[in-house]
Each structure stands twice: as C-alpha cells, then as structure tokens.
C-alpha cells in the first residue's frame, strides 16, 4: 500500500520498507502477482508521479537487473501471465501491476480489488493470472501501525464488491450493467469466490532522532483517528 512521497517524488523511509517487503514476496515466489496501490495524495503529484509509479520504479532498483515499466491499470498487458520475466514486446515487468487512482486506504482496497475482480472474469476465459477464482489469497503489505485497519478495510471492501456484483452497483459508474450481469452469473455459479486476507506488517525504518520520533507519533495518532472514522462510516 502507498504512503506519502518526498517532495522530489521518491519514496519516504516508511514506504521504502513496504516496497522491499512486497518485492521480496514476489521475487521469492510467495506472491504470484505484485500490485502497487497509491494515487496522488492531496490532489497533486510529487515528482510528477503517483505513489504506485514511485513504488514500482524504486522497486526495480532492488532487482538483480534493470527492469522496464510495469503494467498500468486498464492496460491490455494486465492479461499477461506472471512469471517474473520481461516481455520484450510490451517492455513490462510481468507480474507487476499499478493502481494509480486511490487516495485513501478504502480506495486502495476498492480499486485494487476491482482490478482483481476483473481478473476473475478473465480467468474464467483462460486469460487471467489468478490460479483459482474460488479462493483468492491476498497479502497486504503495509506498516505495523496500519495493519489493524488495512486488513479490516480489505475484508469489508471484498464483501462490498461481492454485493455489487450480485445486486448491482451502489455507486454510479462503479460497474457497467453488462459487467454487473456477468458478475451475478459468476456469483450464482460460485465463481466470485472467497478471499483470505493476511497482513505483512513492515516495521518502519525510523531512528531515535527527534524528526523520526515525531513521525512515528504522528503516524499512530492519525491512525487511531482514522480507525474511529472508518468504524463510524461502516468501512471496517
């Protein structure tokens, strides 16, 4: 999951630790696909890039060799198989994906899982990268202070999307009528599937400096407030 960028568009220390953990899961074969989720906080870009793009770019520096650009949301390349190899034609890191619209944890969950939901349909057609639509396993990579809320938000978002498919969208433009009908058919056949969410809690690489102590305290205070707000909104 994304986190604030530096003014020059590079990942902060907190975000770098999340990227390291996510790339390690994918490179180690634990995760078949790696999705970087994060848009443009505050309505603008830092370094003229989204959090997801910054994460993917910095993540490539962790690989043994230089890698080209990852797939973007809505790109036809999302239908490529995931095997950590470079597709010379598309010039993409296979298995890496970006969601660049979200500006909150709730949107991280909804927008990322909608991409996954689309892959369930593709998998039914033999085109997707999910092994089985019956049981989806998602590892949420985030900081330790964020793990309690993020897991519950993703679980609630999955239930929301399941209802959206079965009953139609609650939000205008969330899903087309044709897609909703296809979703109802898949759900009726058990094709929407269940999901297991686990959290890979990453310890922030913060030191005992005054600045880092302030950042650690601020993160905790903001998170406590966010948990209360999300609970009041029914999002967890």
Provide an overview of this structure.
With 236 residues, the chain is α/β, with parallel strands linked by helices. Helix content is 43%, strand content 14%. It is built from 6 helices and 7 strands; from the N terminus they run αβαββββαβααβα. The strands form 3 sheets. It has a 3-stranded parallel β-sheet. It has a two-stranded antiparallel sheet with strand order 3-4. Strand 3 (86-87) and strand 4 (92-93) form a beta hairpin. Helix 1 (13-27) crosses helix 2. The longest helix is centred in the C-terminal third of the chain and has 24 residues, at 210-233. It is globular. Mean pLDDT is 76; it is low at 76-92.
Topology (elements, then pairings):
Layout: H1 13-27, E1 34-37, H2 51-60, E2 71-72, E3 86-87, E4 92-93, E5 96-99, H3 105-124, E6 135-143, H4 147-167, H5 177-188, E7 194-202, H6 210-233
Helix pairs in contact: 1-2, 3-4, 4-5
Short description:
The protein is an alpha/beta fold and about 240 residues long. The protein contains six helices and seven strands, in the order αβαββββαβααβα. The strands form three sheets. The protein has a three-stranded parallel sheet with strand order 1-5-2. Strands 3-4 form a two-stranded antiparallel sheet.
